[in-house]
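# nightly structure sweep
# worker-07 picked up a monomer target from the shared queue
# config: single-sequence mode, recycle default, output format = structure tokens
# input follows
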Amino acid sequence: MKLMKILFSPWSRITRRSLPVVEVRLSIKEGAQTFVEPNPDFRANILNGSMQEVGTATFGKSPLDDTIYVYQIDVYPQHRRRGYALAFLCWLYNEHQLPITPIHIVGSANGFWHAACRLGVGPLVVRDDLRVSEMDEEKARWAHLIPEPEYMRLQRLCAGLKSHEMKFISDSQSKKT
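# output follows
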């Protein structure tokens, strides 16, 4: 019985050709530190073929250029269940040619992301979500790319100089005795 549900699922009829045409307007999301720092987060306005805004999304590109992290997709209620969110994911893939990883899927979006992961429209690859508890470990992969703040660099240099001075002083004192 479960197999029949999958075969006759509305998702089984979706192909890249059947998705609506979308245009995406991007802006850099200003504000607090981003998960993909040193890269910025982007806010996307999703427009339909009539140039009417049908939703928004927020995403960031990994500094290692190996995945796109989608934080949120919000298709307005009157435009839902028409393929706009999936069309946006296809647009992301076409722009970046990278797998898409959702960040912490919440209840109401579970069905969409589950279907998007299993659907595989063309070359689109959607990975399982990244949970909040896994974000620090994921971010550690590109920590070496984040420039060290000047005050931290100076503290590190001063600490190194002090330890060198201490060694020099102790060497000098041992030669006197």
